[in-house]
Design goal:
The protein is of the alpha/beta class. The protein is built from 13 helices and 13 strands.
Amino acid sequence: MRAALARVLLQNPELLLLDEPTNHLDIEAVEWLEAYLRTYKGAVLLVSHDRYFLDRVVQRIFEIEHQALLTYKGNYSSYVMQKKENLRRQADVFRQVEEERKKLRRFIDRFQAGTKATMAKSKAKMLARLDPIEAPKAAAASMKLQFTPRFKSANRVLMLEGLEKAYDRKLFGPLDLTVYRGERIALVGPNGAGKSTLLSILTGFKEPSAGEVRWGVGVEWSYYHQALDDLEESNTVLDEMMSAGDDMTYGDARNILGRFLMVGEEVFKKVSSLSGGERSRLMLAKLFVQGANCMLLDEPTNHLDIAAKESLEEALTQFPGTLLFVSHDRYFIDQVADKVWEMKDGQFRIIEGGWTGYQNLLESEKNNQMMQKTESKILEKSDDSKKREEAKYRKQLENAVQEAEKCLSELEKEKIGLEWAMSEPNFTKQPDFQVRLNRYHELPKSIEEATQRWLQLSSDLEVLNQQKR
């Protein structure tokens, strides 16, 4: 799927046609596709049942209903509100017109032969001019689901003790976890992280590399496999449904299939000829009759349309048992889950809340990472600035030491010169004798001060050089 999608995107066409592009993509890939399509310069026409995807990407909705094409401006959430308002308005208009029609009919029936016959005729003309208003059409039939456990399990439903799985690399583990009755847990993470593998280990279809799985007392689990390969291809739909229970009668099977929108001649279709959506509904119908108090679902919304997803969401939120499911449908996770297990890069963590809570955590972590990077850059800049200041200061010290050495050398030379002059016999007879003598007496103090300055500057330079090393 990813390769086919990549080939299409690389062509960069003026019109991009996408049929369920988010199917089989993990959430990271879906979010990347959303960002890509939002900035795509060409036109995009797509079919999708991913409600969050539609909210983030599209600007107009085309709906095919009752053999008519209807259009709505805005994203999916806007479409839902507009459609609801349109149906309400249509119902109001229909009711008002029908009330007016009945009112006119009553007047005509009452006065058509009496003193107000002329007015009755006028009312009859008004009635004839009333345009026929089509009654609001009933919404398309939806699945009627209710998963009812046969009995309640113990409070501790599932215990994982040191559970690990690895192939050429570690998928997950060791996991030490307890799942309690009534929890609704969504497993999320990129494709290949081990989510489906974990469900397969819990159900015994695969062996762990280490550790143990222990089910609680009274737990009865059912398993929905995303490959939908648990169905017997040669069976009819009705045969497959009747195989779901030992005491399943023909009438029971047809009634249950009807709740999942499989009616009439459809129940005699071969399983091998069913579409993905039909296979999904048949699998859900089989789960419906099992009465499990713990359900393990692997991508249950794949192949389902939005109405079917909404029916499933409602049924699962009312399910009194325990739920553990894998899904890349963010809207579905938000509606159903109260806890998220994240599996990514061999790591595992638990987040309270549905998709929104999980997304808020990811955003917070992303912001923290950005802040840390910003702080790191500031510190790097600060370090660079500090280094430049140190280099500048070192250069100033080196120059100052050199100046101090030069000053001290000149003072000492001056003192030696005066001593040579003072050794001459006629020194006292020279006109500047007193000035030079006074200068000679001042020089020891100046030399001492110059020496101390040179020593201090040299010491500061040595300390700075040691810090650098």
